[in-house]
Amino acid sequence: MNIYTQPYLFKVYNVFTFRQIIFLVIGFMSVGNIYAQTPISTHKIEIAEFVFTPQTIDVKPGDSITWTNSDIAPHTATGSDGNWDTGTINMGESKTIVVSADMNLSYLCKFHPNMKAEIVVKPD
Prior knowledge:
Blueprint: H1 7-13, H2 18-37, E1 42-48, E2 51-53, E3 56-59, E4 64-69, E5 78-79, E6 94-98, E7 106-108, E8 116-121
Parallel strand pairs: 1-4, 3-8
Antiparallel strand pairs: 1-2, 4-6, 5-7, 7-8
């Protein structure tokens, strides 16, 4: 008996219908287009000797910023208005945030308020 000559048996082995395959292809194409249109960058900031390096970075909304603490003392990166905060970053740890268009551009360390730096958000 050939499974392809028996329509009811063929349906058992048919995993996806034609309609489901079309929806999957269109869905994957849409996701690919979204990522192709919005390149996202990761920016790295080192915390060493009680200084954020670099002091100023240019970013776009959707980019991520990662702070890495090379000091013995714990630090934070906190928006000057307090609207965003990495939380405590201990020695050897890293913390990351995603940039939004409405972020306060200057930030500091809550534990060491003399440590300051700036984020410049550029339009897409």
